[in-house]
């Protein structure tokens, strides 16, 4: 196993209100200030073409810095993106979009959509939620929970074990409601 790189030195950051020779930008947001402080540490970047060992070493250095600065997970994510370039940055944006779509799927409701429109949107977003797509019962539960209350009541009259049964009942319920 190759030797570990030395930890990235942490430069002390002046406390707010401290006297410093650096001019203060009064328009800077707290995140702007944090980003400048983070970038002043001159951390290495990650292109995504490095070896697994180099990536692990890079990550270790970053984690040690974050631990010493006591950053929250949210801040860590916002800051680390600035150290990603090329393939690594493309990977991150792909992951971010997938995560956003996964959240959209988790919160999906039928709303003004008819069943066919809801199913189309449901199936499009399902691919971004592999944790649900693992079994048919979970897919059916997620589908049913997103239905409008009037259709949900009619669909939920018996135990449904799969997505196809749920979809067929929802279509029947919608048709029955339209005829009323």
Secondary structure blueprint with pairings:
Blueprint: H1 30-39, H2 52-69, H3 73-80, H4 86-106, H5 115-126, H6 130-133, H7 136-145, H8 149-155, H9 163-179
Helix pairs in contact: 7-9, 8-9
Structure overview:
The termini are far apart. Helix content is 59%, strand content 0%. It has 2 domains: 30-84; 108-179. The radius of gyration is 25 Å and the shape is elongated. The protein has helices spanning 30-39, 52-69, 73-80, 86-106, 115-126, 130-133, 136-145, 149-155, 163-179. The chain contains 9 helices and no strands. The chain has 180 residues and is an all-alpha fold.
Key terms:
mainly alpha, 59% helix, disordered N terminus
What distance separates the N and C termini?
73 Å
Rounded mean pLDDT is 81
Based on Cα principal axes, name the global outline.
Answer: elongated
Q: Helix content range of the residues, please? A: 55-70%
Q: Kindly estimate the percentage of residues that lie in beta strands according to DSSP.
A: under 5%
Question: Low-confidence runs (pLDDT<50, min 5 residues)?
Answer: 1-22
- Main beta sheet: none
- Taking Cα atoms only, what radius of gyration do you get, to the nearest Å? 25 Å
N-to-C SSE series? HHHHHHHHH
